[in-house]
Amino acid sequence: MTYRALYREWRPQNFAGLVGQDHIRKTLCNALAKGRIAHAYLFAGPRGTGKTSTAKILAKAVNCLHPQGVEPCNECLNCLDVNEGRSLDVLEIDAASNRGIEEIRELKERLNFVPSQGKYKVYIIDEVHMLTTEAFNALLKTLEEPPVHVLFVLATTEPHKIPATILSRCQRFDFKKITSHEMEGRLQEILAAYGITVEEGVLALIIKKADGGLRDAISILDQCISSGNEHLTLETVYEVMGLVRNEVLLSLFQAVIDRDTVQVLGVVNAILQEGIEPGQALKDLLEYLHTLLLLQVCGPESDLVFVESKEKEQMLEQGRQLGAAWLAEVTALLVKIESESRWHKNLRIVLETTLINLIYRTEALTNPAAFSNNKVNPTVAKKKPVASVAMPEKLELFAPLETGRVQEEENPPQQTVAEAVPQVPVVTFEQVQAKWPQVMEMVNQKKKTLYAFLMEGAPYQIKGNELSFLFKSGYPFHKAGAEKAGNKKVLQGILEELLGVKLEIKYLLAEKNKERE
């Protein structure tokens, strides 16, 4: 006997077998019981939620020779023909490959032929949003007043692309995503039928990746059964789907928190050596960050969190160290990076630079003052006291009086004072730190080259209205690029917009063992 895919084998054959669409089942059953059958239906919703299955059940119900109430008997000739895909009265059309006006004209010519066996000639048009504008126009009048023996069922995943004139001529039913509880019940039913057991966490992972589509979940399960044995393990599921294991993501992100760049790059290399694509690894990293955020916001008992209990406590601790605000900002950043990654040829570089970016963002949470060999250099954080300050020949005429700042000439006279005059900062360093992720986001939008330069440093200190920015040792090129007048002006404008004050920017360069201004 020819093998059939699990999702076809377990396709619901009557209204009672529909999973997760009770509101649609009740409405259609009531309409059939009262004989209020419309001439056109529109089934809209995400993939794998039962649109085509419901259309076929409806087609059987209206043509069944021995109906069981409103349910098709699935035993008469008409029902068996629909189940086997050979019915002459039920025509399933793929609008993705038959989307032109000629195909619709040919369809209209067939409408006058009466059904050969049943009461209705049922036309199921799948992915109807793919029809051209001309094809929709050709279908319009027919859809409004079809022959009495014709029933249209239009199915789509993108109802917003269908003209309003078409929508107004159909009864619309919106299919919703299948809940995790309902999906798990169906998968358990399939596993019990085949006598297969699963390791804890297998179904949760499959359900998470299916994203509300029961057909996708059954297809993944089918593939896992084919590659495994009588007992499915998490290892098998990860290998089949080509995903990064959760414990690997856990250790990878712990290395990010520990600011261990070497370990991060080593884990990335090991992931890619397993054959996992960089783009998939980036998606898995984004999902991991999203889970950390959900754990912090919703708590560990939330139904939105699909994590094994043994790893949940470690992920909770990671989330506590970073905070919900930081996780929300970084998740939003990764969403943007992941969406733009399709335009990059070398996704490995995108993945590695993204993780290094996260390392420096975690440094900004605790001590953004200095970097050395990709780690915080504690010696740089210790500032030397200023013994003297050079005095200019003349004060700048229009210098802001409230800051007491003076500008130095190129060759100032060597006049000194015993002590430097303390300068009151116009904003606090903590304010700059709090706004810096937003500053970097705006810089990235306005000037990506400047964003790349600033990624290699962090704000260092505030004196008066002067913000010092410290670059890592070994990055003089980035310092020189940021110092260009146009780049400095961009950063000043963004800081003024977010902080409400105009700051002067001073760029510093750190050494391995000491600070050099």
Please characterize this protein's 3D structure.
By secondary structure, this protein is an alpha/beta fold. It folds into 4 domains: 6-174, 3-Layer(aba) Sandwich (Rossmann fold); 180-241, Helicase, Ruva Protein, domain 3 (Orthogonal Bundle); 246-366, Up-down Bundle (Zinc Finger, Delta Prime, domain 3), CATH 1.20.272.10; 429-516, 2-Layer Sandwich (GMP Synthetase, Chain A, domain 3). Helix content is 49%, strand content 10%. The chain has 21 helices and 11 strands. A 5-stranded parallel beta sheet has the order 2-3-4-1-5, with helices on one face. Strand 10 (504-510) and strand 11 (515-516) form a beta hairpin. Helix 9 (202-210) packs across helix 10 (214-227). The longest helix has 21 residues, at 278-298. The model is unreliable at 368-424 (pLDDT under 50).
Summarize the structure in short.
With 517 residues, the chain is an alpha/beta fold. The chain contains 21 helices and eleven strands.
**Overall pLDDT level:** 82
Q: Termini separation (Å)?
A: 79 Å
Shape annotation: elongated
Give the strand tally: 11
- SSE class: alpha/beta
Helix coverage percent:
40-55%
The total tally of domains equals: 4
Beta-strand share of residues = 5-15%
CATH architecture descriptor text of the largest domain: 3-Layer(aba) Sandwich
The name of the CATH superfamily of the largest domain reads P-loop containing nucleotide triphosphate hydrolases
Low-confidence stretches: 368-424
CATH class of the largest domain: Alpha Beta
What descriptors fit this protein?
single chain; 517 residues; alpha/beta; Rossmann fold; Helicase, Ruva Protein, domain 3; Zinc Finger, Delta Prime, domain 3; 4 domains; five-stranded parallel β-sheet; 21 helices; 49% helix; 10% strand
